[in-house]
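Batch manifest, entry 17 of 40.
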Amino acid sequence: MFDKANLPPVVLDQIPHKMRAGENQSSARVLMETRVIQNLILSYFNLVKKNITDLAPKTIMAFLVHESRRVAQTELIEGIYKQGNLDALVIEDPMITA
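Output type: structure tokens
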């Protein structure tokens, strides 16, 4: 198993606002690596955006269903207690006792 406790802390420089190969780094490899990193970052953000877009309606529906269940349960319990025939509801069916 991988133990993170033995790793040294990672200290990164400040993130640049724009990611471009510098004037002195005009080699084809640096340009290609820069483009690959840009594509990876763009793909990552698109994936995160898609996940959030998918999760937002699901989360809203979960809250709506939970609240609807709570309200329905409260009203049903109130209806049972208001009718006053709680004793009739808890009587065991004669077919079961036989």
